[in-house]
Amino acid sequence: HAPSSSTGKSSWRDFLSDGLHLSASGNKIVGESLIEIIDQILPELSVKPCPTTGGINSSSVCVGVKRIGPWHDEIDHKKPKKAFDAEGA
User: Fold this and answer.
1) Less packed terminus of the chain by CB within 10 Å, N or C?
2) Backbone angles phi and psi of 41, in degrees to 5
3) pLDDT of 89 over the 50 cut
4) pTM for the whole thing?
């Protein structure tokens, strides 16, 4: 949903913080638009939120991206190498 100007119409200026860089509302609309395009055109790259929390976290799923390492919460700070071993041993 685009913000409105004093005339009630959206302006491209509403999406820029300084005339060049995206504002919070600009970032929001670009992010939402990208997610929508990815969901439609590249569904295998679409990240599905965690079924429990509804957020994007280590329980999220993206079938098109191979997992190549442990999640941050799987790494023991005293034995970090263990999380990167092939079988976690």
Assistant:
1) C
2) -95, -35
3) no
4) 0.57
